[in-house]
Amino acid sequence: MDILLLGSGGREDALAWRLRQSPSCGRLLAAPGNPGIARWAECVAADPCDRAAVVELAQSNGIDLVVVGPEAPLVAGVSDALRDAGFAVFGPSAAAAQLEGSKGFTKDLCRENGIPTAGYIRVERMDDGLAALEGFGLPVVVKADGLAAGKGVTVAMTREEAEDAIRAADDGPLVIEEFLDGEEASLFALVDGETAVPLASAQDHKRVGEGDTGPNTGGMGAYAPAPVLTAALQTRAMDEIVRPTAQALAMAGTPFSGVLYAGLMLTSEGPKLIEYNVRFGDPECEAIMPLIEGDFAELLKAVATGKLSEIDCPTLSPKHSMTVIVAARGYPGTPASGGAIRAIEAAEQVEGVTVFHAGTAIGDDGLVAKGGRVLAVTAVADSFANARARAYRAVDQIDFSDGFYRRDIGWRELERAS
Q1: Nearest to 386 by CA among 356, 350, 348, 344
Q2: Out of 161, 190, 277, 324, which residue is the most buried by the measure of CB atoms under 10 Å away?
């Protein structure tokens, strides 16, 4: 089948890499793509959020399946326009994408359907948010209601931090919620209407600094699977969180189709939903893709065409994977751009390593940085410790003077193993 992949980040590079390995994948186009994606796909200059342009691109190339990578085109209704034009699309409608597009929407859905999550209040104005703080203890969580590229969350340890986060929203809608105590894990499930099956688990590292310090980012690294999300806890999360969500959306006439990424807090009372994403996580996707076995393109096509219940459940390799993000100096603030990147080939000489491009471009003298998170160095091995060692061995081969990375990705697993 001929496939169109929308997006230009590290997630899309990993998706393109995995799709290219699928026996059923014929021609693979990416819009707009990046220099890494160009290794696996034909890159086409098109705005993935431009509904008319994407539909025309799919029509003119006889596309059989469209895979939407990032959240912005989903919230913008690109998948709706494609479905209206008769295309099979892996990715939810704009109505179902509200699960990520509006945190308040998701919290209300949880409350109405008995889905375990943190207590919360929705507010529309700064003054209301400041007043609402009186009902919460510390720490308290302040979230921008809309899309924020993984960075619109403040875990405030003091009242002053919480007030600053509310004021920074500048009268935009917010969700203020209780702080959940426990360990975070990510569960990825394939959903086709009311059918939902688990795909993979992962853990990521959001804070920019080692020791989980500093501001939140889009993610500084991840590993898969997440051993802390045991089989029993995963079953509970599917039965108590993911499947009730799918059923609620189907009952509302807005069935979900695609991958549902549940950010979970594993509390003493069991798993609780932190928030949903309606696409693969980044950098979790880079860690997960090397573990998925079988024909990945056929799996996504089954979801897109309403046939998930008719195929075998997806299977994962028993191996372990870890991704280390190399970011540009200044991230997550204003990142340095244009810095030369060399020796990626040397990094990929390390056994089990693939380097995915998250924010790169071709400059006058070769590959340069273009974005905050620049590279996603992913390693696979038979054990977590070996995957971690390979990832850092590969990172050390890369010549990128403007880059930095955390040296403690996977520290929780190291502690558990010691």
Answers
A1: 350
A2: 324
Taking Cα atoms as reference points, which of 318, 324, 291, 327 lies closest to residue 411? 324
The answer to whether the CB of 137 falls within 8 A of the CB of 178 is: yes
The C-alpha atoms of residue 394 and residue 406 are separated, in whole angstroms, by: 14
Q: Which residues, at least 6 apart from 406, have a Cβ–Cβ distance to it below 8 Å? A: 205, 208, 209, 210, 220, 221, 324, 325
**Tell me, what's the pLDDT at 18?**
98
Q: State how far the Cα of 142 lies from the Cα of 146, in Å rounded to an integer.
A: 12
The helices-and-strands tally (H runs, E runs) of the chain is 15, 22
Is the full-model pTM beyond 0.90?
Answer: yes
34-51 tens-digit pLDDT: 999 999 999 999 999 999
- Cα 334 to Cα 163: distance, rounded to the nearest angstrom: 24
**pLDDT tens figures, 66-109:** 999 999 999 999 999 999 999 999 999 999 999 999 999 999 99
Band of residue 207 on the pLDDT scale cut at 50, 70, 90? very high
Q: Say which residues have a Cβ less than 8 Å from residue 364's Cβ, sequence separation at least 6.
A: none
Question: DSSP secondary structure string, 99-126?
Answer: HHH-HHHHHHHHHHHT--B--EEEESSH
Which helix (H) or strand (E) is 244 found in, with range? helix 243-251
Q: How confident is the model at residue 339 (pLDDT cuts 50, 70, 90)?
A: very high
Give the Cα separation of 115 and 108 in Å (integer). 10
